[in-house]
Amino acid sequence: MLGLTLRRAQVHAGPGSYLGACLVMVAVTFAAKVLETALPVGELTLVFMAGVVVVASFGGPGPSILASFAGFAAYNYFFTEPRFTFRVLQEADLVTLGLFLLASIVTGTLAARLRTRAMALRGSVERITILHEFAQQIARAPSSQAVARAAVDHVTATMGGEVALFRTVVGSVEKIASSSAEVVEDGRIEEACGRAIASGEPFIIPSNSAVSPPWMILPVRAGGKTLAALGIRSGAIERDDRRLLEAFASQLALAFERTDLTETLEDARLATETEKLRSALLSSVSHDLRTPLVSIIGAASTLAEGGDRYTEPMRQDLAETIREEGERLDRYVQNLLDMTRLSHGALRPQCVASDLLEIIGNARRRLRSNLAPYKVVVSLPDSMPLIDVDPVLIEQLLVNVLDNAAKYAPENSEILLSGHAEGTWLKLAISDQGPGIPAQARSDVFEMFYRVTAGDTQRAGTGLGLAIARGIVDAHGGGIYVQATNPDESGTTIVFRLPIACQEV
Amino acid sequence: MARILVIDDEDQIRRFLRIALESEGHTVLEAATGREAIVQAATGAPDLLVLDLGLPDRDGKDVLRDIRTWSNLPVLVLSVRADETEKVAALDLGAQDYVAKPFGTRELLARLRALLRDRGTEQQDISRIEIGGLILDVAAHSAHLDTQPLSLTPKEFQLLWLLASHPGRLVTQRMALEKVWGAAHVEDSQYLRVFIRQLRTKLGDDATDPVWIFTEPGIGYRFRES
Predict the structure, then answer these.
(1) Which of B194, B198, B224, B197 is closest to B212 using CA atoms?
(2) What 3-state DSSP class applies to B21?
(3) Are the C-beta atoms of residues A354 and A385 closer than 8 Å to each other?
(4) Each residue of A403-423: b (16+ CB within 10 Å) or e?
């Protein structure tokens, strides 16, 4: 919390100050009694004057006047002839007494005014510090919600009492932050805030009971627009406090203007992103879902209608086409499903101690026909540790990466799987001899529906495989990146590392 | 040849299964709902059930639970690939094996063959297994691969015997742990992984391109059929 609270200047003296004034004057009288032997009686008024100045500078004008009269009375009673009476015989003494009273009232009042000035100055320095602190805090807040939270905390800490901040959210006035949860159950405050936002005018709501102070509602305005309303109920809000609150409100308005702007920009960016994604998904679905269907329907109708016109090997070939394209379609649907689960955060790895070699074996089995034209080389140490992963997801990851390699690499080329344990991590690289991915596109390949245009001449990819691969690696708390296989920048190598011990993320 | 009850609500799937199964010489019974399935299973005297888990009227698992109260008929479950938990639940309820949709007929027929073979062999005690050059003799506790003797520890032999006596059939982790290590160790799947690794080494099986032992991730293992 903030250590800063507003110390109020004691402008009005309490009964304590008057009592203090009396005590000071009693002490001064004793002092004068002691000094009487050393000083002429006339000079003793100076001692009383000193007392009055002391009282004035600590107690303010009221006590200083009291002290002046007390000094006047004491001097008269104890030190002028005849002593111990309030009568004055000598004219000189009368003059001294008169001058003393005049001088002490004037000095006392001056000293008291000086003190009030000093206190006011200290008060305004404090307010400026508080305002500065406030401005800094809300400037740091990244979102409107955080701005609201910081503002309420700050105002509560400096002013005390209860604070609530209201804004218009989707057409209705809502409390977005308040000093404590149960604060502002009163519907009147919400209503008044609504009116303050609509009109840009401040409101005062009288309190229900005599003991609690009224609510003050201040509009938060910037550029002729009311962005929010700040409600506060605090013990004693004075004129200066109110000015401070108004300063808070204008700082707050600027902060809201800033965060609103960034949030609007962010929303716009998200909307474009979503739009881009939607059109990418549509084109992907219409293209990638249909391509295999074209082959399947074509081959199946040829088979169904061809009768004996086709030789057995031809029919076998057509049937194979149907199967292969069906499997491709299945992989695509699987990818779409995985992507949906990933984007809903529903992809939670169910980790069990698994043998990576077995997972590789299964992935290869699933891609049997795709990998058949390639020379798949597995180069892993025999002592590979068991790894705590979700075997089904890691198999999918390998299927996607291997499928990608098989899509772009030339036939009869080598696809190399290599890896080793590195401390608590396991690193696996899958390298192909395809055209490779240009350096500047390497981080984009893990984006949904991204395809490297130059490398995409051979077969249509779904643009999902590597995005899912990254999703799976992320879900395991690992990392994935792409690099060139060969020094001449050709070939694609996908490297990923997974923690050997499962990390639920 | 066997009488096979196919329980699936999709006409297309029942149609191609009928063609595939009848071409293998089996007799095919069909049921499109859970209710029909129970009736057919009770009155049609099938030797084996092919059960789709997604039925319109009731959960396929319920049907399985029902049937298991009065019959030990072998059940092959058809499940969607992503649904691991469904698969495991069905196996726990007493299904013998599963095929993930979409599947090829070759895969399905191999599974059925393995299950039907089991039906024949479970009654009679076998003491010798011969698969693809591997010869196991339970009496002599000996194993030979391409006439070369394999030196196996007793546990390794037990595990290999268990797998090889169910060629092509799913052996769940639980089943293997219970049969080889005892009921107290059904959760200790690490044992199994270590021993499978050792068996692979001794059989010269490359886990990344296996020919002897196939892994069903998170579920169990399957030994080569021939």
Answers:
(1) B224
(2) helix
(3) no
(4) bbbbbbbeeeeebbbbbebee
Complex confidence, ipTM = 0.83
Q: Are A395 and A366 in contact (CB under 8 A)?
A: yes
What are the backbone dihedrals phi and psi of residue A71, each rounded to the nearest 5 degrees, phi first? -65, -45
Inter-residue contact A155 to A3 (CB < 8 Å): no
Interface contact A358-B215, CB threshold 8 A: yes
Query: B169: alpha, beta or left, given left = phi > 0 and alpha = psi -120 to 50?
Result: beta
Instruction: Please tell me the number of Cα atoms within 13 Å of A156 on its side-chain side.
Output: 16
pLDDT one-digit tens code per residue, A85-139: 887 777 777 888 888 888 888 888 888 888 888 888 887 788 788 888 888 888 8
Chain A's closest residue to B201, CA to CA, is A382
DSSP string, A36-67: TTTS-GGGHHHHHHHHHHHHHHHH-HHHHHHH
Tally Cβ neighbours within 10 Å of residue A245. Answer: 20
Sheet holding B134-137, edge to edge: B128-131, B134-137, B142-145, B148-150
Question: SS3 for A90-148, per residue?
Answer: CHHHHHHHHHHHHHHHHHHHHHHHHHHHHHHHHHHHHHHHHHHHHHHHHHHCCCHHHHH
CB distance A474 to A505 below 8 Å: yes
Distance from CA of B197 to the nearest CA of A (A): 9
**Structure tokens that stand for A285 in this block:** 């679905």
The tens digit of pLDDT for each residue in A219-228 reads 888 877 888 8
- Residues of chain B in contact with residue A386, where contact means CB-CB under 8 angstroms, are 190, 193
Taking a contact as any Cβ pair under 8 Å apart, which residues of chain A between 357 and 376 contact chain B?
A: 357-362, 364-365, 376
Residue B183 in tokens: 């009921």
CA distance A251 to A258: 11
**A337 → chain B, closest CA residue:** B82
User: B126: distance to nearest CA of chain A, Å?
Assistant: 30
Which residues of chain A does B214 touch, with a Cβ-Cβ cutoff of 8 Å? 361-362, 365
A163: β partners: A232
Name which of A437, A425, A426, A418 is nearest A483 in CA terms: A437
Pick from A419, A411, A417, A396: which is nearest to A465 by CA? A396
Strands B134-137 and A492-499: unpaired
Establish if A460 touches chain B: CB-CB under 8 angstroms: no
What tokens does A344 get?
Answer: 């809903």
Question: What are the two backbone dihedrals, phi and then psi, of residue B89, each rounded to the nearest 5 degrees?
Answer: -60, -45
DSSP single-letter state for residue B59: B
Q: Which chain A residues are within 8 Å of B206, Cβ to Cβ? A: 357, 361, 378
pLDDT at A372: 92
